[in-house]
Input
Amino acid sequence: MGRLRFTGIAALSALFAAGTGALGQERVPIEDFEHGGQAWSFTNGPEFPGAEGGFAADADAGFPGTAGGRLRFDFTGGGAYVQAAVPLPTDPALTAVELMIRKPVANGLTVRIVDETQQTFQKSFNLDTRDWQRVRVRLDTGTFHFGGANDGVFHGAAQSFGLLVEHGGSVRGYVDLDDLVGVPGRGDGGPTMRTPEYSIAEFSARRIDYDFSQAATETVVSDDLSLLGDPRSMRLVFDSDGSGHEVVVTLYSHFQTFERTLGRLDQAGQVVLDVPLQGMVGWSHYGGEDDGIVRLPLRLGTVRIVRVDGKPNQGTVTLRELRVTSEVPTGRALFPLAVSRVSDGRTVFELTVRSLAESPVDATVLATVRGFDGAVVEERSRDLSVPTGAEPVTLTVPASPGEGRYFEAEFSVQAPGQVPVSALATYVPPPEVQASPETGRLDPMSPFGMGLYLYRYPDTPEGLANMDRAAALAEAAGVKWSREEMQWHRIEPRQGEFDFAYYDKLVDTATRHGISVYGLIGYWSDWTEPYTEQGVQDYVRYCRALVSHYKDRIRHWEIWNEPNIFFWSGDKELYFRLLDQAYGAIKEADPEAVVLGCSTAGIDLGFIERAIKAGSRFDGLTVHPYRGDLDDLAFMAELRQTQELVSGRPVWITEMGWPTEVGGGVSEREQAVLIARCYVDAVASGACRSVSWYDFREDGLNPYYNEHHFGIVRHDLTPKPAYLAVATICRQLAGLKPGEVESWDSGAVLCPFSGGGRTVVAAWSHGAAQVATVDDAPEDLAIVNLMGERTRPLRRGDAALVVLQADEPVLIESESGPIRLRPLAQLPSITVRAGETTEVTVRLGEAGSEEPVVRWANPRAWGVERGAQPGAWRISAPPTARPGVHRLSLTIEVAGGRLVIPVPVVVVPDVVEV
Output
C-alpha cells in the first residue's frame, strides 16, 4: 500500500486594522512597526537575574504588513521574565489597548500598565492558539500592583504598556506582536449592565441563635459561595431582636480576606444593612497577598453576630435575605454549570443555568455526549426559560456510559441578546479499590507521589473513615508518597507540650496503604514569635522533637512551604538560617533523615542560589513548578538545569497542578492530560527524584474558585478523569527506569521506560495527531490510553500502526521485545473561529492515488463536508462554539482495518479580553 499522508490548512479570519473596531470607537494608532518601532524599550527583569533576549522590529513578525515586533527570550541562565514596553498617548486618555499577538511557545504572558503616579498594574493570561490572536487589554485594572501610589487605585491616564514573556515554558524562543492601537472611552469589552438584586439563597432565611453566657464572643454563619459578576453592593435584611450586637461580614478574594462591621441590631423588627462592594473601600483586609485588590470571583465567607458588652447574652435573629447587585457585560448574563451525578442508580449529566438579566431569558440548549475518542454518543436539544435573579433552571441528560471508561457532556446555551455560553461535565466509573500485598507494600524508591493531605480530615470517626478511604483510593492508583503538613500549632499547642495522637493515626493509615509520608514542617505555632531569632530557635526545637518521635516511620522532611513568596512574610535571609539550623537539628535526631529545602513557588533559581550562597544545608531541593502551559522538552531541560544548580542533589516536585474551576481553569479532560505529562516528563528527565500533584481531593464545592478544584477526585471522593490518568501512569511505569527521550521534527515526544524485560513508551504529538509505525512489532504489542483502556494496534505485516494523539500520551507496551517507532504521517493542526470554516486534506499515498475511506463523527451543530479537491474536507464551527478545544473523531480504513483518531479543533475567540 502507499504511504499515508495528511495535509491541511487552518484558515485565519479577516485581518483587524486600526480604525473603528468592534466596539464602535475610534482607535488611536500607536505602533505598526512599519517604521522600526524605535519608541520601544526592552528589559530582562534585572530583579531576577539570568534572563537574556531583546526586542526589535522583524520582517518575519508582521501582521499583515512588512514588519512586526519580535520579543526574544533566553532563560538558560535563569531569570523570571523579559519585557517590551512602549509609551502610550495620554490625549485622549485610553481605557484599553488592542494588539495582535502570535505566541508559538508555551510560556505565559503578562501585561504591565503604569499610571500617572508610576504605579504599575500587572495581570497575566495565556492564549489557546499559537497563531495570531487579537487581544484587548483593559488599562485600569490589574491583579497585582506595585510602585508609585501603591494603593491599588488607578490614577489618571495610562502612561505606558508592557508585554512580558514569563519563564516557565520554552527556555528559548520568541513572541511576536503587531498593530497596537489605543481605545478611548470604554475599554472593558463593551457596555455593562447593573444586574437586578439577586438572592444568595444559601444564606437567606437563616435562623441564628446566639449564646454569649459562656466564653463565646460571636456566632458564625459560614459557607464559601462566589458572587456572580463583578459585585457592587450587598444588602442584608434581618428580623432583629433589638439586642444591639454587631453584624460583621467577611468576604474572600483568593487567599485574601476582606472584613467589615456593617452595623448593629439596635432595633427590634426588620433591620436593613446596605454596604458597597466596589473597590472594597472601607473594608479591612488581611492574609494572602494582603494588598486590598479584589481578585474575582469575590466569595461570601461568613456573616457573624458579634457580642457587644452590656447587651443580652442570649437571643435569636433571622437573616431574612442576603442580596447582591453586580455588574456584568451586556449580553453575558447567563451562568451555566454542568456536573455528573448518580440519580436513582444511573449516571446523569446535569446542567444548571442562572441568569442575571433584567427579565427572563428564553434559551435553547444543545447537549452532546462523547466518548474518550471524541465520537458522539448522544445529542439532545431543548428549550429553556431561565428566570432572572440567579434562580436556577436545570436540565438532565442520561450519561449512557455503556462500556467506555470516560464520557463527557457539553451543553451549549444560546439565547437572543446573549453571547453563547457552554458548560462541560465528565464521568468516569468509580475505581475498584481492593487491597493486596503488592499495592500495600511501601516503595520509597518510587517517584510517584501525591498531595493527599490526610491531615485535613477531622479527628472524628467520619473524618478518619474518609481519610482511610482517600488513602485506599491513592493506593489503588499506585501512589507511593504523600506530602503531609505536620502542623506545629496542632502538635505543640503550648510550648513543650506535644500531642502526636492524631498524626500517629495519619501515619498508620498511610503506611497501611503502602504510602510513605514526607513531612512538611510549618507554619508558626500560636505561642512563638514569628520571623524572629527566638521564633527560629523554637521552630528548630520543634523539628528535633518531631523527628525524634517519627524517625522510624518518616525519613524525609521539607522545611517550610514557598518561603520565596507571601507564605514567608519575614526577611528571606532569616529563612535561610532557619533552613540551615533545622537541618542540623533533624540530623541530630535522625542521622539517616533526608532534609528537603527551599520549596519554592515556581522554580525560583534566584532564591535557590541565595540559599546556597547563605550556606543553607539541605539534602534535596523541592520546587513547585506551576505554569500556564506545558512545554514538555523545555520542562525536562529546566529540571536538569535546576539539578545542576544544586550540584546533582535530587530534585523533588512537591506541588504542581492545574485547577478545573469554571471560568478560568482547564477542562477536566485537559487536567488528566496535564497530570500524565507532568509525571512522565518529571521521571523521564532523569533529574526528578519524586513528583507530587497538588492535590488529591478537591478542597471545596465552590465551582468558580480555583483553589477548590486542583484535586483529581471530587470533594465527595468520586473520581475525575485525572484520577484514571494517574492510575494509568503509576501502574504502567511502576518499577521501570527512564531511557533517552526522543523528539521528532514533526512534534512527537517519545519517553521510553524499561525494566525486567518489559518496555513502555509514553508517546504523544504536539498540536496535531500523527501516525507512527512500529517496525518489527512484537506480537504482544499493546496500546493503553490515559483512561487505562487497552487495545491492539492495527498491523501491516511485521509492522504496526500507532496513532500518537494530539498532546495526549498513549502508552505503547511490550514484554517480549524492543519498541522502535518512526514517523509515518501527520494530521494538520486545526484552528477555526466560531461560525467559520476551515479545510483539511486527508490523503492516502502519493498524488493521484486512490482516496482512503474516511468517516467523521462530529456533533450535530458542526459541519463536515467534502471539499472540491480529492481528500479535502471542510469543517465548519457553529456560531455558538465556545472558545477552546473541541473534539471530532476521524476513522480511516487502512491496511485492512481502521484507525480511529480523535481530532482536536481549537476554536479561537475573535478577541481575548485581559
